[in-house]
# Entry
Amino acid sequence: MVRLINHRFLERIPALKAAQITECESAVMASNLPELPTYDLVLLDMYLPKMSGTDFLAVLTQRSLHPQVIMMTAANDQQTLRDAVNYGVLDFLIKPFTFERFEQALAKFTRVMAVDQQSTVSQQDLDSLFLGEATGEVDDRPTELPKGLAKLSLQRILATVKTLVTDFSNQDVADQTGLSWVSTKKYLDFLVEIGYLKSRVVYRGNGRPLTKFYPDAAQQQSVNQYL
# Structure
C-alpha cells in the first residue's frame, strides 16, 4: 500500500513523467537487481524485511554505487539520521509526510540532475543546488504582478492546479475555478512565461489543436515571489 502511494506521488511529478519506476518488496530484492547501477534515485524506507534501509545504504557504498537517495521512514532516531547523513542522502522525510513535502524533495533531485548534466557550473547553479531555491538576499516583499493580474485570482488558480494530477487544459482550470476562460488563459500564459508551467500542443482528429499544461516542480520559486 505504501509503495502504491509513493508510486502515485511520483506520477504526479511532471518532470518524472518519462521515468522508469521499479518497485521492490525488500531491500534484498533491490540489491539483487542487475540494473541497480543504472538507477538515479532510490526512495528508501528504514524498516524493511531481512535488510534495513541503512544496511542497504552500506551495500551501495560497498559496491561504489551512488544513486541519489531519499529516505522516507517513520524512523526518527539519531542513529538512523546519522547513518543517512554519513551516506549523503539527498533528503529525509519522516512519515507521515504531505505530497507538498514529497514534491520539494523531488524538486531537489531534479536540480541535482540538471546540474549533473552540465559540463560546467556557475556559483548560481551551486547555490540553487546546496542552498535550495532561496538564494541571494532575502526579500519578503512579493514581486508585483503584471498589470491585469490579481494575487487572489493567481492563488485560486494555483490551488486548482495542485489538485489536477494529469496534464490539464485552460478549460479544465476555468471549470474548476469558476473564472472565465479568457481570465484563466491570461494567468496560465503568465505561469508559462515565468517557467512554473510547461505547455504542449495536442493534435486531435477533429477541431483545433489543444494546449495542455503541467507544472514544473523545480520552478516553484518562480511563482512564490508573486504570492
